[in-house]
Specification:
Elements lengths: L18 E3 L4 E2 H15 L8 E5 L10 E3 L11 E4 L8 E4 L3 H9 L2 E6 L12 E8 L5 H17 L5 E4 L5 E6 L6 H18 L4 E2 L11 E4 L26 E2 L18 H7 L17
């Protein structure tokens, strides 16, 4: 899977043939190879960011699941601890700084990587807004695509760029890069107001509150990813779900041809990299502007 210019890691994988996705035959080594292939695209979204990890030591069928925000016994030294500057108790969070750190996450059975929308060099100034479109069970995929285009139009009307990716779960993420100037409260308020405006304009389609009783036939516009300490799955991260799906950045032009939120998997990503070597999010941070 890895092209010749893929990075190398000094991190040793113990039991590289351990199956993380048994039905798909994806091993620990296979996951490391996947991340080597996408590293040049993925790095800006996971390096030097506070991370939350979903760890499944025995793969996706493991009875043990840890949503890990803090260090654990025996943690690889390439996974760093860093103090949260706003935590009075000096609580330390997790980050990686290079490809060795990512391979250390693979070794640690971190099958999902969920970063904050900021870097550890500028904790209090987010550099992105993530709008998570979370459809009810009976919502057509075409309606989710339509909702993403609606979010795009609203972001662009406010002078922001909009990028889209599959979640690898149930929906789509529309993400706007920010010049990191506004604080967490302002960013979350903006995201909340966007969700509320969509719900007000089309209450038959959208919800801005996570009320399960009302979810049927609606798409929840989840703006809560944008609060301080909250996370969204990283671009190119795998998901701990059957089929070994990944959260895949897309060009807007190709969205209508995507079959669903889990359309991209560890099995078909190599072909995508061969046929579309250009990164659809290649100008993500170049498009960042301040939130006015």
């Amino acid at each position: 899977m890895s092209p010749s210019n893929s990075p190398r890691s000094d991190v040793s994988l113990t039991h590289p043939d351990r199956l993380y996705w048994p039905d798909e035959g994806v091993t620990k080594q296979g996951l490391a190879d996947y991340y080597a292939a996408v590293w040049r695209f993925m790095a800006p979204y996971v390096v030097n960011r506070p991370l939350a990890l979903l760890r499944l030591p025995d793969g996706i069928k493991s009875r043990q699941r840890f949503f890990q925000k803090h260090a654990w016994k025996g943690m690889n030294p390439h996974i760093e601890e860093i103090a949260d500057p706003q935590d009075a108790d000096g609580e330390k969070l997790l980050r990686i700084t290079d490809f060795d750190g990512l391979v250390a996450l693979v070794q640690s059975a971190a099958l999902e990587i969920h970063p904050w929308g900021t870097t550890t060099g500028n904790w209090e100034r987010p550099d992105m807004i993530t709008m998570d479109l979370d459809p009810g069970e009976d919502v057509a995929w075409s309606a989710v695509i339509s909702a993403a285009l609606d979010v795009k139009a609203r972001l662009e009307a406010r002078g922001l760029a909009a990028f889209v990716k599959t979640s690898g779960g149930k929906g789509l993420h529309v993400v706007a890069p920010l010049a990191p100037r506004a604080g967490w409260a302002a960013v979350k308020d903006f995201a909340h107001s966007l969700a509320e405006s969509m719900s007000a304009d089309a209450p038959e389609k959208y919800l801005a509150t996570a009320t399960k009783a009302k979810r049927g036939g609606h798409i929840y516009i989840d703006y809560l990813r944008n609060g301080r300490g909250n996370t969204a799955v990283a671009a190119y991260s795998t998901r701990a779900r059957p089929g070994a799906p990944v959260s895949m950045p897309l060009d807007w032009e190709e969205l209508s041809g995507v079959s669903g939120p889990a359309a991209f998997t560890l099995a078909n990503v190599p072909q995508r990299l061969e046929t579309r070597p250009k990164d659809p999010w290649g100008d993500f941070f170049a498009a960042a502007v301040p939130l006015e």
